[in-house]
Amino acid sequence: MTSKELIKGTLRVIVLKLLAENRRMYGYEMTQRVKDLSGDEIELTFGALYPTLHKLEAEGLVTSKTMMVDNRARKYYSLTSAGDASASKEVKGYFDFTKALSLVLK
Amino acid sequence: MTVKLSTDDIKYIRFDLRKRGLAHPSVLEELIDHVCCEVELEMKSGTSFKPAYEKVLGSVDDRQLTELQSTTIQSENHTPRLMLRNTFKMMFRNMRKYSLHSIINVSGLCIGLCCFMVIALYVRHELSFDKMFNKSPDIYRITMSSVVGGKTNLIPTSFPALGPALAEESAEVREYTRIINYKYSRLVPTFSNRDKVFYEENVIFADCTFFSLFDFPFLNGNPAKALLHPNSVVITERMAEKYFGNGDALGQHLTINNQTELEVTGVVKNIPSNTHLQFDFIIPISGISNSGIFRSAAILESWNVDWF
Fold this sequence. Notes:
The complex is a heterodimer of chains A (about 110) and B (about 300). Chain A is α+β, with helices and mostly antiparallel strands and about 110 residues long. Chain A contains four helices and three strands, in the order H-E-H-H-E-E-H. Chain A has helices at about 5-20, 25-35, 45-60, 80-105; strands at about 25, 60-70, 70-80. Chain A has a three-stranded antiparallel sheet. In chain A, helix 1 packs antiparallel against helix 4. The longest helix of chain A is centred in the C-terminal third of the chain and has 25 residues, at about 80-105. In chain B, about 40% of the residues lie in helices and about 15% in strands. Chain B is built from nine helices and eleven strands. The N and C termini of chain B lie far apart (about 115 Å). The chains are: A alpha+beta (about 110), B alpha+beta (about 300).
């Protein structure tokens, strides 16, 4: 399992990337998708995920829409146009960083 | 196989999450959905609702839930306006909830602030005393003390001859003015303008340098010349209105004690409360012999009277 600290720093990029690939997602769906993609390596906890989503929403990168599904309210998140632009920028920034980091940690 | 939670199950989850401290509506709804999804996943393997729910929430500390809630509230209060609105909302709700306590607190604060303001006004008034004159840092009042039988008495007045003597002998004394209050005579003078006759309490005599030292603002008249002639008088705005109505008081005549006619040579603004020189009429000290206190102006060279 990847350490919590590492996930914390990259959660923002993960969420932006997920939303860029899928038009809209809800919180639980994201945790499952990340679990699948990482081969059960990365498990997002709700305690970290939701504050990140709310923060992105407050920044205006993400919008949300609530719908009734199976007798309960489900909140779907999607990227705004500003979020679209910053998603690709932040993903690229992350790869630049890991490249630099691998040089340091080599 | 897909498992769907019933409304009752969802109700149960909602109730339990609320019991664990979640109150913020959007956080609560979002977490209900999240927990429902996890429970449904757990139930796919055949577990029934209760054990599945216990398993999902077993690893979750209540503190984690409330922490999530407070970070959400913080991120929602990202603008000062929203934050202030929530703060005031909380204030009003708390005040209503603990109304007795609030009333005691607020009224206590009110009384405290009122006391503070009253004391501050009083102190400011006291500290501002006699500070309104341009020359006030250079003005000194001469008082006396006498020792009688081992007991020291402080006397706020001195001898009339002291002023001229000090001015003559000491270069540091540039100007002096002697002031005597009519009250020392234990008499109350009358002033009259035709049929208007009044007893007046605030009457003083002063040397012609009075307005050079104490620059009370003049509404009418020349401060340098106002007290030169023995039979002149400077009055306050209030007295000008009392004796002469709205007309011009300058150059008019007032009769003191039904004996001597005095010409009004100046009208000053009403005297502020923060000076000890409270007067309504100033008569030149050179006219003191016509005032009914002393018969002769020779008193001004005397060392025997200590009323000045």
